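dude i think i finally got it to work??
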Amino acid sequence: MTNEEKEQLIRPWIDPEERVTVHFLDAPDLNATVTNCTDRLVDLSLETQVPYMMQHLPVLLSQVEVSEDLSHYTRDPERPLQRKRLMLVINDKRPPIIY
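look at this
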């Protein structure tokens, strides 16, 4: 899949109210929001163990595989329920969280 195709799939998920699933090699099944996406980078805000503290992380699209997570559903009650959500598989370890 090209970076442009990945961008087209990710762009509709740029929404602070919608969560996506992110898998790193050493940290699977993380919740995140997509804050921006270009033809080279996707910007993520990952949930951490500290409430209300997010880890902001830019990731190269070349390191990302785009898929669907059928085990989660969308959250926004104002929109029609979707029984799947975006899943990003990142072929690298999760960077350390700096508090």
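The CA atoms of residues 22 and 28 lie 7 Å apart.
im so relieved honestly
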